[in-house]
Amino acid sequence: MKTPWTDLVDRSAPLPEYPRPQMVRQGWMNLNGLWDYAITDSSRFPRAFDGEILVPFSPETELSGVGRALKGGQYLWYRRTVTLPTSFSGRRILLHFGAADQIAAVWVNDALAMQHAGGYLPFEADVTDFIVGGAMTITVRISDETERSELPRGKQRTRHGGIWYTPQSGIWQTVWLEAVPTSYVKALRITPDLDGACVRVAAETVGGETACAVFGGEEYRLPAAIPVPGYEAWSPEHPKLYPFSVRCGEDLVQSYFAMRSFSVEADERGVQRLFLNGKPYFHNGLLDQGYWPDGLYTAPCDEAMIYDISTAKSMGYNMLRKHMKIEPLRWYYHCDRLGMLVWQDMPSGGGHYNPAVITAPLVTGLHLPDRIYPLFARTNRGAREEFRSELRELVRHLYNCPCIAVWVPFNEGWGQFDAAAVYEELRELDPSRTIDHASGWHDQGVGPVRSEHVYFRKYAFRPDKKGRAVLLSEFGGYNLRVDGHCWGQRDFGYKRFDGPEDLREALAALYRDEIAPAAREGLAAAVYTQLSDVEDELNGLLTYDRKVVKINPDIVKNISKVEI
């Protein structure tokens, strides 16, 4: 199934843009393109390769050119030989992977260079000492057991259907090289401080030299509180970004920040609401799965990611809840510059979910204590520790993105455990953002918000007994089948309609009769399900192939307008 961008992908250089917009260097080399691949039953190096695969598209995707699924117990191999440009001579060479699903080992010229567990987060290594004569053969081995490993997997499921989607494996984000001097910037931590009219910047460096930031023609030794006098606050209506640079010895990176703050406070009527830049702000959002029929997790190009964000914005929405997936950094950059708030989910993990635990609460409203690990498919201690490790890595990875307003560690009890302790850990890691500790149900009574999912009954606002702000973090799910633009014959959704007129009228009634009154009473946020169809799910405002907008965006903008 193709999108408007499928046939426009340059197979010699797919996704050519620099992948890390807040750490931009000039000395880099994109390794996306055709690699050799093999699928084997052995963990030993393959004697021969099966053909070519287009990186960074998983072998299960149409865009990869492979169309094969990695099975449990199998290994996916990649190989590519690279000759370094002369400009890289005499410098340290860093090899980066945006993400590879799920457990990766990387060799450079037959020497093991790095290993990484986790299908959603980046990893890198200094491979300088493995390079011989300015050339390097990169070999990657991937294993992916999907739900059998109990590691974070999001909505991938071997037996997919309904709300569970086709699993994928292997490299699914950009691979690239960087040439750096002996001393260089490894990471930045950027924290806007509106009360202090400054931005606080710290740098992690390698090589012993001090890092300095340059902003407004002035240089600041890091860490530093950099003054931003007369700043313009960032918001979806005014997405102001400030460029700056950081130097460490001969290393120079370009970055940006925004001045904004998130909090939960009482409004003038004493109602707990989400605040943006010190003022009440209703988060009017869409659930966004981030799946593509031609690339699964991987958008075919930058323009496709921009299309999704821009279309949601044209419909009047100011927020996307990134559901059970972590996007490439360029997606967050586009949210930053276009003006789109993001609620970031941690992809779920654990064993086989008990339907009574993850489905029955939709009807019963029953909340269970998540310390009972067997109920939540979380008996594997190692998998619990890995989840928390990846969650910490997620927060560090995306901390600098201005658009991210809310962290969501657990959803609907999918592998939920110790949410109160996880909330406290997240709050310590990042006190600048709101945390929805248990989206949907199995509320453990902690944090500043209560989160609800409502699909099969009329929504009516109820103040929280603990005095927390109330979020309707999923609702709607109205589905409309558009023949010729569906992935298959199945038709999954929460309320079915026969035509666009019926869908439009129902959506208008939903916002007019339920969401708008609830917002006036005290509802702090609402997340409609969803932005686009995904496989069997036909409840998107866009079709899965992104070729049909089911309701005119101007009409949706008028319908979805919510005032508080």
Overall description:
The protein has 564 residues and is of the alpha/beta class. The chain has 3 domains: 6-180, Jelly Rolls, CATH 2.60.120.260; 184-257, Immunoglobulins (Immunoglobulin-like), CATH 2.60.40.10; 262-559, TIM Barrel. It has 8 helices and 32 strands. It has helices at residues 302-314, 329-338, 355-358, 361-364, 381-398, 419-429, 500-521, 553-559; strands spanning 28-30, 33-40, 51-55, 75-83, 92-97, 100-101, 103-108, 111-117, 123-126, 135-143, 170-171, 175-180, 184-193, 198-206, 211-215, 218-221, 224-227, 242-248, 251-257, 262-266, 272-276, 279-280, 283-288, 319-322, 341-345, 404-408, 434-435, 449-454, 469-476, 478-480, 495-497, 523-529. The strands form 8 sheets. Strands 27-26-25-24-23-32-29-28 form an 8-stranded parallel β-sheet, covered by helices on one side. The two termini are 41 Å apart. 48% of the residues are buried.
